[in-house]
């Protein structure tokens, strides 16, 4: 999840916030509620009045990370160059 309007304020109307989130796996039937509940915990604010602008399901959008998951791989590639992303 990321606050896109914090990265680029032109992404949302003045006084509004745009948040984007990625959900892995097949979407549950109650996707909107499940995501809102999780985002409420992550952001520490109520999300019941948030407006869902769009939901897209693309089963091939995120590459499969087959086990075993080596979560302690170094992220520094070179001085000043780091690997990042939700695939790590």
Automatic annotation (TrEMBL):
It comes from the Bacteria. This is FAD-dependent oxidoreductase. It comes from Streptomyces halstedii.
